[in-house]
């Protein structure tokens, strides 16, 4: 990847700004959806009621993670506009964290769906009695192929965007835009008019 372009044609700063804006929109939207979708009663999964305390722990953890990543994305937006290195560094670390977590969750989902193949096919037969076992097995196979392809593409895009953000952060670090203030003794003041008389 070039250090000055994102997606081969967009300047890296504009690309990182677009990535930060999209990321902020996604996490703010997910935070709002999480706040609006909390069920008031107990939650059941496979006819087993989940403890309300366990559900609350998962629910509020999801909200907290979503808020943290939304704030980090907003740091990315502000950091890109102001070219502030520390804000971009926070955005870079959070984006890499999200990309790695997404890869881990995707691999776990593929493994779980692969291990539960027999149960999924049996449930398909139970839900749709007009289908044969071969029809359900074909549907499962097609689902797994599509799910794996989409997962690989989405993870590739996430890691590409993470490397673009890292490239921009490196570029900001290498420029002299944020030099520390120089020592005033290195630059003496010019003599005043009173020194001439």
Describe the overall structure:
The structure is a single chain. The chain is mainly α. The chain contains 5 helices and 4 strands; from the N terminus they run E-E-H-E-E-H-H-H-H. The strands form 2 sheets. A two-stranded antiparallel ribbon has the order 1-2. Helix 1 (12-36) packs across helix 5 (133-174).
Order of strands across the biggest sheet? 1-2
Helix content: over 70%
Count every beta strand, where a strand is a DSSP E run of 2 or more residues: 4
What is the global morphology?
globular
Low-confidence runs of at least 5 consecutive residues:
none
Instruction: List the helices and strands in order.
Output: EEHEEHHHH
Q: What's the Cα radius of gyration?
A: 26 Å
Number of helices: 5
**Coarse structural class:** mainly alpha
Average pLDDT metric: 81
Features:
mainly alpha, two-stranded antiparallel sheet, 71% helix
Short structural summary:
The chain has 197 residues and is mainly alpha-helical. It has helices at residues 12-36, 52-82, 85-115, 117-127, 133-174, and strands at 5-6, 10-11, 43-45, 48-50.
């Amino acid at each position: 990847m070039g250090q000055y372009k994102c997606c081969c044609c967009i300047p890296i700063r504009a690309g990182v700004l677009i990535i930060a804006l999209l990321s902020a929109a996604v996490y703010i939207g997910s935070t709002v959806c999480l706040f609006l979708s909390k069920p008031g009663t107990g939650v059941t999964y496979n006819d087993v009621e989940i403890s309300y305390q366990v559900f609350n722990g998962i629910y509020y953890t999801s909200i907290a993670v979503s808020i943290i990543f939304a704030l980090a994305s907003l740091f990315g937006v502000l950091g890109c506009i102001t070219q502030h290195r520390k804000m971009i560094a926070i955005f870079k670390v959070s984006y890499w964290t999200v990309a790695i977590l997404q890869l881990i969750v995707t691999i776990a989902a593929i493994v779980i769906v692969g291990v539960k193949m027999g149960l999924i096919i049996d449930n398909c037969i139970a839900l749709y009695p007009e289908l044969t076992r071969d029809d359900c097995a074909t549907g499962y196979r097609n689902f797994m192929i599509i799910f794996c392809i989409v997962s690989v593409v989405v993870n590739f895009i996430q890691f590409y965007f993470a490397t673009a953000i890292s490239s921009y952060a490196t570029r900001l670090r290498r420029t002299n835009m944020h030099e520390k203030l120089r020592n005033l003794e290195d630059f003496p003041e010019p003599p005043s008019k009173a020194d001439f008389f």
